[in-house]
UniProtKB/TrEMBL annotation:
<dbReference type="InterPro" id="IPR024515">
    <property type="entry name" value="DUF3397"/>
</dbReference>
<feature type="transmembrane region" description="Helical">
    <location>
        <begin position="105"/>
        <end position="125"/>
    </location>
</feature>
<feature type="transmembrane region" description="Helical">
    <location>
        <begin position="67"/>
        <end position="85"/>
    </location>
</feature>
<dbReference type="Pfam" id="PF11877">
    <property type="entry name" value="DUF3397"/>
</dbReference>
<keyword id="KW-0472">Membrane</keyword>
<dbReference type="InterPro" id="IPR016945">
    <property type="entry name" value="UCP030092"/>
</dbReference>
<keyword id="KW-0812">Transmembrane</keyword>
<keyword id="KW-1133">Transmembrane helix</keyword>
<feature type="transmembrane region" description="Helical">
    <location>
        <begin position="38"/>
        <end position="61"/>
    </location>
</feature>
<feature type="transmembrane region" description="Helical">
    <location>
        <begin position="6"/>
        <end position="26"/>
    </location>
</feature>
<protein>
    <submittedName>
        <fullName>DUF3397 domain-containing protein</fullName>
    </submittedName>
</protein>
Length: 130
């Protein structure tokens, strides 16, 4: 059972877009609400995109930049809190965290797409000696 669970989690880390789609389809079937399903799938798959970006960096460059990834996430959080405070004059934690998590999704989704394309080109060029 542990091996199966480990394999499923590994698959979702390797392919977070499929994780997003599966969660979206499952939630859409249960709730029948499109917007809620999209938001729920975004929230869950963000963690998989963050982990996936880390492992893509490790596989492309051979070194872990997890501390830098965590630092970027921390700076995004600080920026969102300051921005929310400047605009609203008070911090509503639920809105701040939601904005923080959605910006992380956008950042790591774009980073995932870029690193996948870069990794594919890099390994093809490496195989052909270019």
């Amino acid at each position: 059972m542990f091996q199966f669970t480990s394999a499923v989690i590994s698959f979702f880390v390797a392919f977070p877009i499929i994780c997003y789609l599966l969660i979206f389809i499952l939630c859409k079937q249960i709730t029948k609400k499109h917007r809620l399903s999209v938001n729920f799938a975004l929230d869950i798959s963000t963690l998989f995109f963050i982990i996936s970006v880390h492992f893509l960096i490790v596989s492309i460059w051979g070194k872990s930049l997890l501390s830098y990834i965590l630092l970027v996430i921390l700076f995004i959080g600080v920026f969102i809190v300051i921005l929310h405070w400047k605009i609203k004059q008070e911090i509503v934690y639920r809105k701040v965290f939601r904005g923080f998590w959605r910006i992380n999704f956008l950042l790591f989704f774009c980073a995932y797409l870029f690193l996948m394309a870069y990794g594919l080109v890099y390994y093809v060029m490496k195989q052909f000696g270019i």
